[in-house]
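Entry:
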Amino acid sequence: MTAATHSPSFSAAEAADSADAVLLGLDPEQREVATTLRGPVCVLAGAGTGKTRAITHRIAYGVQSGQLMPASVLAVTFTNRAAGEMRGRLRGLGAGGVQARTFHSAALRQLQYFWPKAVGGDVPRLLERKIQFVAEAGARCRIRLDRNELRDVTGEIEWAKVTQTVPADYPVAALKSGREAPRDLAEIAQIYGTYEQLKRDRGMIDFEDVLLLTVGILQDRHDIAEQIRAQYQHFVVDEYQDVSPLQQRLLDLWLGERDSLCVVGDASQTIYSFTGATPDHLLNFRTRYPQATVVKLVRDYRSTPQVVHLANGLLKQAKGRAAEHRLELISQREAGPDPVYAEYPDEPAEAEGVAARVRELIAAGVPAGEIAVLYRINAQSEVYEQALADAGVPYQLRGAERFFERSEVQKAILALRGAARSGGNDPLLDDVVELGSQVRAVLSSTGWTAEPPAGSGAVRDQWESLAALVRLAEDFARTRPGVTLADLTIELDERKAAQHAPTVQGVTLASLHAAKGLEWDAVFLVGLTDGMVPITYAKTDEQVEEERRLLYVGVTRARLHLTLSWALSRAPGGRASRRPSRFLNGLRPGSAAPGTGPGGAAERLARKHGRRGPVLCRVCGKTLTEAGELKLMRCEDCPSDMDEGLYERLREWRRAQAKEQGLPPYCVFTDKTLMAIAEAAPSEEGELSMISGVGARKLDRYGADVLAICAGQDPGAEDSDDA
């Protein structure tokens, strides 16, 4: 496993001899990047095209030719690993004096140096882990957050700060951006504001504050800004498609009125928009700098022509602005095997098939460390951990805890063990005989529900982990009739012990997000069904397109061997109701081209309710495209005829439901769905089912209550005895 991409050979020893030696081994486009040292430069670099090589040789050529002073160059990237790799390459090329840092590292260094002059006194202490402060802020607001909600609320605060959104503006900004928030937006804004006050009271700052404070000093103190600009006169920014608005603001202040800037990126690899990253700065570069030199790197030195052909095919089907700027890669490697498409009857069979193929590759000489199994969400890892362990294949998890080491799994197993010991004395197991039902009853006390929570994030990950335990229990009971809860806990202990495989030189198990920037000889992309890739909560066109880009990133991690697989059902003997990912239509053998594939969010909503064509605002008649507007059936800015009293009654009912079920309120209904219900005031099931966000399950589960509230009645009063 490596993050390096190798283009034509070049030795570090040659670099120290002369500027011309630095250019040896570069292809024509890389050479153009290396020799274009003045003015704005935009490098559009596809996956595997040697972008790091191009920009490090550019810096080294400038230093060796005397056109750049090492101390005047600041190279910025997004991870400490990438910055460290860049520094190592620059040293080998004779440009060791160049600063290569992350945005946060560079800003923190400047903040520490200039704070006494700009503010006075010592720099506030850096808060390494903000989650504890978020927990305390929640407690002060009398809002109880579990561990997973803490993580997600912390993520919302980070998003707000990198998009320069203050607490008071968070609810509106989150709605406008279509955020799937883990709590009520007003509650998050309250926690966010209290968190900021806590930091101020204790003289502490977080990592986002490092950027914000540096921006503030550079804006207010022109003398300090000029001092930094005198130091750094040339800037290089890698992974420019991942820049946030706050990072772009800092970069603008570093630059001042100058344009000695080289940016490198690929809009087709934008997969972190949920953190505030946006490709707009990359896509707008030529608009901002009309005189910019634009160089496209499309020679792929990483992957075989077969892998590159599939990657190009994926992007040909893409839509949206990023797709308009896609790069057509050209493989520079010899031909290799065709990508393998594998369909399995169920998930265990898929995992066993992947493990068997992994063993074959290892036996054929492919090192285990050069093989990766990539999936969409971390909860998918358990079945592959088990399959590889059963096959005697060492593996390592990247970017996630081992399945049996996740806190929600440990808590669930403790609950199951306690229920097994108490036997018939556990009230959760009254009148519950079948093992699967017993497990569902016990896990309901730890956060599991029959219906998955809406949206992504930690709450969804937790639910997926618990759902995996439920499925495991069902499969265990199916293969061994008559087993008890105690038998299951023994089985779980044995599985946990068996999966402590060596982590050195093992097959990598990772999510697609965690695989960004890495590459392997052999890659298995697993679980490629509609609902997983794209993920079920990708609702808008842009969210679906980001899912396509995520799959593109997965495909381009493979150098030689690539396998794409899916299962038609979850468990053995289950109904084969799943379909392969729509992204593979027209690419996998026997599939039709996506000429009439799924349309935008508006078209999907129209099809759901039997309508054709776009969805129009019921107030002004404008075509609706945003997810929130589609729920309301009107533009955000159009006047609302919502019954405020009905909305508040629905919120009170939702709060009670969420408390009773141990769920976040948005898992019952989102705020937008409640607003849509309050505006429509449905009087019968057909009208309620027409509202976006009220699916068949929720209609069955909550429909009677909601209709009763809309009719001004007490929900569930007549059925209380039956309930």
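The CA atoms of residues 346 and 571 lie 5 Å apart.
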